[in-house]
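Justification of resources, computational component.

The compute hours requested in this renewal are based largely on the per-chain cost of generating structure records like the one below. Each record pairs the submitted sequence with a full structure-token output. That output is archived, and it is also reused by downstream analysis tasks.
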Amino acid sequence: MSKKNRREIPKFATPIIETHCHLDYLDDNELETTLQRCSEVGIERIVTIAVSPDNLDKVLALTKAYPNIWGTQGIHPHEAEGYTPEIERIITERCSDPRIVAVGEIGLDYFYDHADRAVQRTVFEAQLQIAADLDMPVVIHTREADEDTRSILQNFSGSLKQCGVIHSFTSGLPLAQYCLDQGFMLGFNGITTFNRAENVREVVAATPMEKIVLETDAPYLTPVPYRGKPNAPYYLPFIAEKIAEIKGCDVEQLLSQARDNSFSLFFEG
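The structure output for this chain reads:
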């Protein structure tokens, strides 16, 4: 899309919570610029997500350096083969920190298969057990793994009292309905704006407002009208507009409910 077709980022009265991004991927200058622009468009709080043994410390450090940043601790399925007893100990201990709000990003990814599937399942279960033991919510990644994700979550049904969020939801309606019935929220991002994402918009339409949280997964999945540029939390207003359009509601109503949902999920447990 040419520059002349790119809209200014809209501003709304309701503060916005970014529930899933990767701020540690930015250098210091990029981070400061990003946070300034977030403030200008009303991003109130940001949850930056851990994915690997290499960024657990970086995520925690960001939460200590900035009052509007919170974080998670966990190992992504791509990095499952790097999960060790020492990493498990670190995640478990860090979850007592008030700036760490969830175990994640954990789950299964059978699309890329960067790690052995059996190892992915074992590591997913181990981290779900941490969350169950500590009464923490989880941030779950699942891609092309609906059956195994559901099967594993069924094994933890009732023990995950805080549940959590299935982030960047792109799976089918059956998994969506199962997760919603179990008490999970669904995270939606710039994919909702993509031309060929009717499957995701179908899930958005079927998801109760009380179960939706907003995310960018920045620096990935940049929404229209800025596709082709690195993503950032300050593009969340475009995602909110699209979800409100799908739900047939006012954007402020959507933002208010999503904010309440985010507080309930991460900050009021």
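The chain has a mean pLDDT of 96. The chain has one domain: 14-267.
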